[in-house]
Amino acid sequence: MDWGNLTQQLINGLSLGAIYALIALGYTMVYGVLRFINFAHGDVFMIGAFAGLYVHRWLKPFFHGMPEFVSACVVLLLSMCVCAALGILIEKLAYKPLRQRSRLTALITAIGVSLLLSYGAQLLFGAAPKGFPQLIKNETHDLPGAVSITTEQIVVLVATLLLLVSLRFIVQKTRMGLAMRALSNNPTAASLMGVNTDAVISFTFGLGSALAAAAGIFFAMLYQAIDPFMGILPGIKAFVAAVLGGIGNIAGAALGGLLIGLMETLVVGYSKNIGIPPGFRDAVAFVILILILMFKPAGLLGKSEREKV
Amino acid sequence: MLEIRNLHVSYGGIAALHGISLEVPAGSIVTLIGGNGAGKSSTLRAISGIAKVSSGSIVFEGRDITNKPAHEIVALGIAQAPEGRMVFSNLTVLENLHMGAHLRRDRNAISSDLERIFTLFPRLKERLPQAAGTLSGGEQQMLAIARALMSKPKCLLLDEPSLGIAPILVQTIFSRIVEINRELGYTILLVEQNANLALRIASHGYVLETGRVVLNDTAENLRSNPTVRSAYLGEGASDTA
Fold first, then answer.
1. Is residue B241 pLDDT above 60, yes or no?
2. Do the Cβ atoms of B98 and A195 come closer than 8 Å?
3. Which of A69, A156, A282, B27 is 20 to 30 A from residue B19's alpha carbon, by CA?
C-alpha cells in the first residue's frame, strides 16, 4: 500500500469536497425553510466565480502594496455580498410570487432561472473560458512521503473550515438562526411567534448564495479557468451531496460534500487498481445518488419523516 | 380589548365561519365552546392572521387588525398557543421559549420572565436542554402556553389546551390558566371542547355551531342553560345515540 499516494489523494479529495460542501449547504438550507430545491444554485456558484474575477480586475489599482492575503479576502467577501444580493433578488422575483403554488411550479421555475443565469452570463462574459487571476501566490509545499500540498489547497481548506464554523455559529447561536430552524420545523408556529417568514427566507437565500460564491472562487482558484457553464456539474454534484447527507440537514450537507469530493478523487486516483476509467469521475456522484435513494433515502444524517396528511 | 364583527372565513371555497361576532373585555377569560368543525379554531386562526378573512372585521385595542400578517399581530400583543400544541419538536425547550420572545430585545426582562415561567411550570425547568418533541403531551401543552407568554402579550389565545392530555395534567393546566389570568393579569380567549372545564373558569362564553354563534351569555348562565347542559355538558343527553 502506497500511503504517500493515499494521503495525496485525500488532500486533493478534501479540497474538492470542501467546494461541494459549501454549495450543498445552500441547497439544504433553502430546502429546510421552503421544502424546495433551488436548481439555480449551481449558477449562483458560477456567478460567484465571475464576480471574483471582475472585483479583482476593477479593484486591482487599489490592491497595490496591499498584502495578498488582505486583497484576496476583499475579493472573496465582495463576491459573497454580490451573490447574497443575487440570491435574495432571485427569490423575491422568481420564487416568492409562486410560493402558494405547487412545488413543481417552483421547481420548473428554478430550472428556468438556472438557464437564464448561465445564458445571461454567456451573453455578458462570452462563452470562451476565462483565466482566473492568482489571488494568492501559489507554491507547492512538500510534505513527508512524497506528498505535496499547494498554497491554494491550504487556503481553500482553512477558509472552508472558517466558513463552516461561522455558519454553525449563525444557525445555532443567533436569533436569525434560531428563527431559521423554527421555520424549518413548523412554519405556522414560527409565524405565530412573530417570525417574519419572508425576512427569514431572504436571509436563508442570502446566506446560501454567499457560501456558493465562496465555493465559486475556491473552484476558480484550484482550476484557474471559469466559464458560464461551470456551475452545472458541481451544482448537481453538490445537490447529490445534500441528498447524501440528508436534505435539510446542515451538518449532513457538509459531510456529504466532503464524501463526494473524496470518492470522486479516489476513483480517479485509483482508476487502474479498481478498473474504472478516470473519465467516469462525473458518474461517481450519480451512482452514489442512485444507491442512497435505494437504500437510505433519508440520507446519512437525515431522519425519515412521514409525510403528514 | 378584542372585538370581532361579522367574521367570515372560508378554506378553498368552503365556508368555515358564517359571520361570527364576539367581544373579549380586558382582564377577562372568554371561552368559545362547541363541537368539532364549529369554527372555534378558525376564529383563533383568523385573529392571529394565519387564516384569511373574507369579510368582517377584527379590532384589537381600537385598531383594525383584519388580515394583517401574523408577525405584526404578535407584535401588537396577541399570542396564541395553537391547536395540537405545535411546539418546535427538534428545538430544545429553552430554544422554544426563546422563540416565544422572538420579537423582544429586552434581554434582562426576558430572563426574569423565564424565571416567572418556571415558577408557573416547574416541569419545564427540569426539561430545558431536552428536544421539545421528547416531552409528554401535557408538558408540550405547558410549553406551548409558556412560549406564548414569553412574547408578553396583552391577549392570550388558547386553542384546546385539554386536548389529548392526561386528566390529572388537565387540572394542573387549567389552574395555571386561572393563575395567568387572575394573578398575572392576562386577558384570555379560550377555545375548548371540554365545555364543563371552560365554563368553570371563564366569565363569558360563546357557543358555536357550524360557523355561527348560537348562544352568548355569562358562563354562569350558560352552565345552567338546559340546551348547553344536554349538548355540551353531558347531562340528560338521552336523545343523542
1. no
2. no
3. B27
Each domain of chain B, given as residue ranges in start order, spans 2-231
What fold, for B2-231? Rossmann fold (3.40.50)
Q: What is the mean predicted confidence (pLDDT) over B201-207?
A: 95
| Model confidence pLDDT, tens digit, residues B14-53 | 899 999 999 999 999 999 999 888 999 999 999 999 999 9
- Give the pLDDT of residue A1: 66
Q: Complex ipTM, two decimals?
A: 0.92
B79 φ, ψ (degrees, to nearest 5): -120, 150
**What 3-state class would DSSP assign to A175?**
helix
**B234: closest CA of chain A, how far (Å):** 32
The beta-carbon neighbor of A195 closest among B48, B86, B102 is B102
Specify the length of chain B in residues: 241
User: Does domain A3-295 bear CATH number 1.10.3470?
Assistant: yes
Helix (H, G, I), strand (E, B) or coil at B41: helix
Cβ(B144)–Cβ(B159) under 8 Å? no
* Mean pLDDT score, A260-267: 94
Least confident of A24-33, A258-267, B31-40, B90-99: B31-40
DSSP label of A308: P
- Contact assignment for A196 to B69 by CB distance below 8 Å: yes
User: B82 vs A197: CB contact, 8 Å cut-off?
Assistant: no
Cβ–Cβ gap A197/B71 under 8 Å: yes
